Amino acid sequence: MKALVLSDSHGATHTLRALMTRLEEGKPDALIYCGDGLADILPYRAWCPAFYAVRGNCDLAAPPDTPGEQLVRLDGLEVLIAHGNGYHVKRSLETLSWRARELEARVVCFGHTHQPVAEWHHGVLMLNPGALHGGRYALLHVWADGVVEAELLSL
Questions:
Q1: What is the DSSP pairing of strand 148-154 with strand 136-142?
Q2: Strand, coil or helix: what is 140?
Q3: Given 85, 91, 120, 125, which is the most exposed site by the fewest CB atoms within 10 A?
Q4: How many C-beta atoms lie closer than 10 Å to residue 54's C-beta?
Q5: pLDDT, tens digit (0-9, with 9 covering 90-100), for 58-110
């Protein structure tokens, strides 16, 4: 199972189009969007089989039913999706990793800092793809044997 993880497009629709064109062959099974540019990604809701998105602190015009965080299940793996601003991720990943453990999530996908991160923190994979407006994105792999891996990539 492969998920494309994006965040912080901030209006860079040309970068988003270029990425989607690049990934057209071998599309992922899921698209996870971690906020700040929600209007940019909504046209791609049907691009792959599963779509998950949360609002970021700059998504003031997001549809009112867009959650601030979301817990989803990918191939039996609990994944927490959050923008991260409410968890002070610019200072530390501690609060967000505590939230993940509280929800029994093994992976957290988040944004807000614009800095790519893929590191294990107290048994939780903390994954920030970096800012899409800077050409950054991530692929999250959940293998059949339960192994989880993240790739930090750029256009």
A1: antiparallel
A2: strand
A3: 91
A4: 26
A5: 999 998 899 999 999 999 999 999 999 999 999 999 999 999 999 999 999 99
The three-class DSSP label of residue 21 is helix
Element spanning 77, H or E: strand 77-82
> Architecture of domain 2-154 in CATH?
4-Layer Sandwich (3.60)
pLDDT for 17-52, tens place per residue? 999 999 999 899 999 999 999 999 999 999 999 999
Whether the predicted model's global pTM rises above the 0.85 cut = yes
The single-letter DSSP state of residue 42 is G
d(CA 138, CA 118): 9
> Under a CB-based contact definition with an 8 Å cutoff, are residues 132 and 37 in contact?
yes
Helix (H) / strand (E) containing 118: strand 117-121
SS (H, E, C) 46-100: CCCCEEEECCCCCCCCCCCCCCCEEEEEECCEEEEEECCHHHCCCCCCHHHHHHH
For the record, the structure tokens of 148 come out as 């989880």
Gyration radius of the chain's alpha carbons: 14
What residue ranges do the domains of the chain occupy?
A: 2-154
- How far apart are alpha carbons 10 and 131 in whole angstroms? 8
